[in-house]
Design brief:
This protein has about 350 residues and is α+β, with helices and mostly antiparallel strands. It contains 8 helices and 15 strands. It has helices at about 5-30, 55-70, 75-80, 90-105, 115-125, 135-140, 170-185, 285-310, and strands at about 30-40, 40-50, 150, 155-160, 190-195, 200-205, 215, 230-235, 240-245, 250-255, 255-260, 275-280, 315-320, 325-330, 335-340.
């Protein structure tokens, strides 16, 4: 055998042995499991790594909280809402820019200024008294994403009315998932699942060496959250997933069930029959925002958006003409559905 062929054989053996060692190391490396509280909800993170990264994970989540939490008195968004001078950081700008883009794409169905209307109706639903037309008209004056923008240097938020307030709760959990996922990738982690309040990002395989499978809960009238019956299970490996829906929180009109979703344009609850919208996308902030949008847009509006954005997949639970649960999903979602 020539020297050249010997070198080739030695190199091939080196590759084979190296691959075997890497596979063995991956199989032997443990999965870490972290959980805790953030953004007023629970997070659960599973990842394959030789050490626990919870401190680093919580540090990243705290950065998101310091940027986007309206309940944090010193956060960037709180200072923007109070019209105080504040330096807009990258996290705030990332989310504001994405929210602006999706607001435009959905013709205002996604709107981070809608909180005053949501709060007014939320209080009304709890008390059994709807807000007055005068109250709605007054609040609509300070709602509308087109009424806020960034200055040319992206250092300041401009408001048409100083009373306008931003609330990124419909996108922040998804963004938080993306931030943690990026941290894990930067640590060379190939297998992980990040979940914050039901929003999820996955990569690789689970600790059972199978694709990540996430359940979609059936919306029911179970107000004490005892029944968590699953509608279906989705394979969301290497994808982000977010679900929006007023689970266990409906109103009835004309014998039909509707979710408590407020249309930012009209100021009133939508009368679509969608009860929950689950979206798969390449990143969780996008999935989160579109899931909220689809609750506002209804079936026809959602399909129009999906036609324009084939990279998105949606799984919708709605009530049919008989008042029964029905399902519609994107054709591209079919191979993600796991028989349960």
């Amino acid at each position: 055998m020539s020297k050249k062929n010997l070198l080739r054989l030695a190199f091939l053996l080196f590759l084979i042995i190296g691959t075997i060692l890497i596979i063995r190391q991956q199989h032997e490396m443990p999965y870490q499991h972290n959980s805790g509280l953030v953004f007023g909800t629970v997070y659960n993170i599973t990842y394959q790594h030789d050490r626990d990264l919870q401190k680093e994970i919580e540090a990243e989540l705290m950065k998101v909280d310091n940027s986007l939490s309206p309940f944090n008195e010193q956060s960037v968004i709180t200072k923007v809402n109070r019209n105080e001078p504040v330096e807009l950081n990258k996290m705030f700008l990332d989310v504001f820019t994405l929210a602006e883009k999706i607001s435009q794409e959905t013709d205002g169905a996604f709107d981070v200024t809608v909180a005053p209307l949501v709060n007014a109706w939320g209080f009304g639903f709890k008390q059994g008294i709807s807000p007055t037309e005068q109250t709605i008209d007054s609040l609509r004056q300070v709602v509308g994403f087109q009424k806020v923008s960034l200055t040319a240097d992206s250092k300041t938020v401009k408001k048409q009315d100083p009373r306008i307030m931003l609330d990124c709760s419909a996108i922040a959990k998804g963004y938080g998932c993306d931030v943690v996922a990026e941290l894990l990738k930067n640590n060379g982690i190939q297998n992980f699942m990040v979940e914050i309040g039901g929003e999820v990002v996955t990569k690789g395989v689970s600790d059972k060496r199978v694709p990540w499978r996430i359940g979609v809960t059936k919306p029911t009238d179970d107000t004490i959250s005892v029944n968590n019956e699953l509608q279906t299970i989705l394979n969301v490996t290497n994808k982000a997933m977010a679900t929006s829906g007023n689970y266990r929180n409906f109103y009835y009109k004309g014998g039909k069930k509707y979710a408590h979703t407020i249309d930012p344009k009209t100021g009133y609850p939508v009368q679509h029959n969608i009860l929950s919208a689950t979206v798969l996308a390449d990143n969780c902030a996008t999935a989160d925002a579109y899931a909220t949008s689809f609750m506002v847009l209804g079936m026809e509006g959602t399909r129009r958006i999906l036609d324009k954005h084939p990279e998105l997949m949606a799984y919708l639970i709605y009530t049919d003409d008989k008042g029964d649960y029905s399902v519609w999903y994107s054709p591209s979602m079919e191979d993600k559905i796991v028989d349960n």
